[in-house]
Amino acid sequence: MKPAGIGRVWRGEASDEPSSSAGAGFDAPNPAREDARPTESSKMYHFRSVIVIFLTATLSGNVARAELKTNIEYGRAGNQALLLDANVPEGTGPFPVVIAIHGGGWCTGDKSGKGDFAPALKALTANHFTWFSIDYRLAPTNRWPDCLDDVQAAIRWVKAHAAEYKGDPDRIALLGYSAGGQLACLAATLARPDTRVQAVVGLAPPTDLAADAQHRGSLKKWPAMRNLLGRDSLDDETLKLLRQLSPINHVKPGLPPFLLMQGDSDKTVLPAFTRNFAVKLKENHVPCDLYFLKGAGHRIADWEKFDPAYPEKLTNWLNQTLVIR
User: Fold this and answer.
1) What pTM did the predictor assign?
2) Which domains does the chain have, with CATH numbers?
């Protein structure tokens, strides 16, 4: 299926119908006579059985035995080391690459993905992706744009070092949840040649921060943003800054394909804002797939309760978007 501009359309989604080829070509031998001479059909059966056994043994030995390397330094900010974890798949590669950016309101969270996008990382591992999950500087100790600077530094580092981890530097996707989704989408829309990537996955990403702040009524009702900006008033200067932080205001033709996933009952990031972002991408002829998980809220740790297959849908999309052409 071709990707839709906006909608619940999945490239590579498995059909619910049983395969018509199940068991095809496996002619059972006739055991009625022990002294019967083997027929061509029975010879073919045994030959195919040997092939199946061989393939089964081969594949079972290659099931996502990946190596996780932790606390790799991708940069420094003063005396602080900026660290990431790297998943290195078994095999020769080069494999498609994902840079994962955790959520936590720009103030909490870490590269482990626990309580965050850990199911997505597990699915990426099972599907032989080289992935890098990054830490970045958090508010309120660090203010904007420190976290964005770190994401951009991580992209440059991954491009330079992906091959050392069996990754393909020409097939890189950004994946971010919540605040990490804002950073992923903004980094992609602001990208220069040294930070350009080939795909973006935004999981409940805030993409219109000015509209979000106005909807809330004040920064007092948005402590995470107050901590990030170090501002208390929603004045004209703050609104101008929030517009600069909003990926929706930087959309232009030529951006990489986007996958946007979100719970349709999200009360933290309104689904309408995500839908508006998808429309803006489409208006600029940027490929975008939009998927809402029915009944799910903002907390990604609960998403599998509403759609157990969402990590698989995510990896299917990445596999098809990052395919070697």
Assistant:
1) 0.82
2) 67-208+246-321 (3.40.50.1820)
